[in-house]
Specification:
By secondary structure, the chain is an alpha+beta fold. Helices cover about 35% and strands about 30% of the residues. The chain has helices at about 25-50, 70-75, 80, and strands at about 1-10, 15-25, 55, 60-65. The strands form two sheets. The chain has a two-stranded antiparallel ribbon. It has a two-stranded antiparallel sheet with strand order 3-4. A hairpin with a 5-residue loop joins β1 and β2.
Length: about 90
Amino acid sequence: MRWEIHPWRDAAGAIGGIILFSEVVTQQRRATMALEESKERYHALFERAGIGMADVEFATERFLAVNQKMSEILGYPRDELVGRTWSSLTHP
């Protein structure tokens, strides 16, 4: 449950009571936990893959992330690959 409690004020501004809001957040919490677990599985797969993998922003063709194997294949440290484009690494 999620609770919110706020004072209720009368026309003169004096506190005349409280306003109480409550909400069942079980489904939301379950969905959040499932999303976090999915992210963790994706990250583990991405990092441990035996092939080079990259997350690419297609509009700019820039690497957003690369795994260690991709770094080894291309011969650049990972931090130097992030932000670069594939075409900047290949001969014209």
